[in-house]
Automatic annotation (TrEMBL):
It holds the Pfam family Hexapep. Coiled coil: none annotated. Gene3D superfamilies: Hexapeptide repeat proteins (2.160.10.10), MurE/MurF, N-terminal domain (3.40.1390.10). Its EC number is 2.3.1.191. CDD domains: LbH_LpxD. Signal peptide: none annotated. This is UDP-3-O-(3-hydroxymyristoyl)glucosamine N-acyltransferase. Residues 25-91 form the UDP-3-O-[3-hydroxymyristoyl] glucosamine N-acyltransferase non-repeat region domain. The keyword Nucleotide-binding does not apply. It is an enzyme of class 2 (transferase). Transmembrane segments: none annotated.
Length: 310
């Protein structure tokens, strides 16, 4: 998430009440998770295992729970609880805004777009031209929807990420301040849920078509002209490249890349990156031709056992 203006390191430190290492005027332009950081961003780290990754990332401000040597060209914010302080910054720069109407006055909606009854459209939402938003759709704050988009009844765009840190007292939630971005010519079926990014965007690419009852988690990027069938569940931070077909009831774990043109057969479980242009099946998903060969061999085992007995 980018701030509306550049802030100084000292200003940021004052907001969360922590000491800092670096020039007081060091520029701070936003905050982001490790996988999407850019120069000018704050990233947080609270475990020694990941100190190196955070310090060596593109982020130039590291919110960290230990005094360490500051890399050249970067700055540190020294916090007892980086997770909580990152949340404080998220809430400060994108506070929750209570809705005052079913369609926010701050929303921008194309004149040729049809919004059916009982649709909720939150604050600072942008919807393009020639869209149809069917009844009982919920569109949370800051979502961006392009042109020629169809969203069917009961779908929810922009719900919070399922992102929690275990603490002695229970689970603390990482605040979601990102967006959902729906590009042109996308169609989304009924009763789907697409979570916003934690700090960045969950994106559905141009021309992609999504069936009913699909869950797409935070920060996932779906490419152009993909087909996603009913009851698919896609975890967070995945990259689904262009022209991928995912059939019904597929589950995909977080942090994977599904290559261009991949086809995943129904009821498969994907737990690793998938190379482009191939078909996959099974749990864990492997190349479909290998899986079918394996299944054929298993079916032939009784006959082989009978031959051995003879």
């Amino acid at each position: 998430m980018k701030f509306s203006r550049t802030h100084s390191l000292e200003e940021i430190a004052e907001i969360i009440g922590v000491p800092f290492v670096g020039d007081a005027d060091f520029p701070v332009e936003g905050l982001n998770e490790i996988h999407v950081v850019k120069p000018g961003d704050i990233v947080f780290v609270d475990h020694p295992k990941y100190y190196g990754k955070a310090l060596e990332s593109a982020a130039t401000i590291i919110l960290i729970n230990k005094e360490v040597e500051c890399p050249d060209g970067k700055a540190l914010l020294i916090s007892k609880d980086p997770f909580s302080d990152f949340n404080k910054l998220s809430r400060h720069f994108r506070p929750f805004e209570r809705a005052s109407s079913g369609i926010s006055a701050s929303a921008t909606i194309g004149k040729t777009t049809v919004v059916q009854p009982n649709v909720f459209i939150g604050n600072h939402v942008t919807i393009g031209e020639h869209c149809v938003i069917h009844p009982n759709v919920t569109i949370y704050d800051h979502c961006v929807i392009g042109n020629h988009v169809i969203i069917h009844a009961g779908t929810v765009l922009g719900s919070d990420a399922f992102y929690f840190q275990k603490r002695p007292r229970g689970f603390d939630k990482l605040e979601s301040v990102g967006r959902v971005v729906i590009e042109d010519h996308v169609e989304i079926g009924a009763a789907c849920t697409i979570d916003k990014g934690v700090t960045a965007d969950t994106t559905i690419g141009w021309g992609t078509k999504i069936d009913n009852q699909v869950q797409i988690a935070h920060d996932t990027l779906i490419g152009k002209k993909c087909l996603i069938a009913s009851q698919v569940g896609i975890a967070g931070c995945n990259i689904i490249e262009d022209e991928v077909t995912i059939w019904g009831q597929v589950g995909i774990k977080s942090g994977l890349t599904i290559g261009k043109g991949v086809e995943i057969y129904a009821q498969s479980g994907v737990g690793m990156d998938l190379a482009p242009g191939k078909a996959y099946f099974g749990t864990p998903a492997v190349e479909a031709r290998d899986k079918f060969r394996e299944m054929s061999l298993i079916r032939s085992l009784p006959k082989l056992l009978e031959k051995i007995k003879k």
